[in-house]
Write a structure and sequence with these properties.
Largest sheet: 4 strands, antiparallel
CATH topology: Jelly Rolls
Order of helices and strands: EEHHHEEEEEEHEEHHH
Radius of gyration: 21 Å
Distance between the termini: 49 Å
Strand content: 15-25%
CATH class: Mainly Beta
CATH superfamily: Jelly Rolls
Amino acid sequence: MIRLTDYSDFSINYHIKIFIADCANLEDIKSAVMYRLWYAFKREGITIPFPIRDVRMREAASGDETQREKQVGELQDLLGSLDLFISLTSDDMRRIAEQAQIRVYGEGEYLVREGEPGSSLYLIRDGAVTLTVAQADGRQTALAKMTSGQFFGERSLLTGMQRSATVTADTDVVAVVIDKPVLAPILQANTKLAESLAAVLEERDADRAARRQADSQAPAAPTSQLVWLQRITRFFGLD
């Protein structure tokens, strides 16, 4: 249960009431809840309030602008190393870097869950994650581990497909998130990019099919470039 309790000088205060069965673990459970709340606040840009005077200096503003420009440049370089975006221009890459979100996750948190809707790509900037899929008996089978510089969710970003795996943070993770609205204007301005992106999806899908066969799992034929192109075109409403 969550109740708003009062408006104070520097904060809006809420009271959270948690019902548990294992009272012996009260402190551990309380700590885990606070831990998850902190990361949720971090992702939403909510800071822990403290008394502050709103004094702004010109030098500080200039420093913030320089820091932001540095961050955009680093993101542009990171995104430029991905095979998915190899056909984009430097201007397109900068536009994506400027609008990408930075999200922080704590160890054990889910970045995405299998079967839920999605329209975004996740690029691991720092940390490590594990991808798992559910079996018929409910067990989770590990598919792969990903670390800094690797990404997932390209099919959801480009076609709106449901998440094909659950992704869990093995450590604290900093992820760069690119949503459909960021990519849509770029594709609408240059519809030929859809063909290049479809080719990358076909290649990555073929790699997945080869890994399944190597792991003695049920073989599956990769989806063709034409089918991926049709899905991208339909998802983004391209002519």
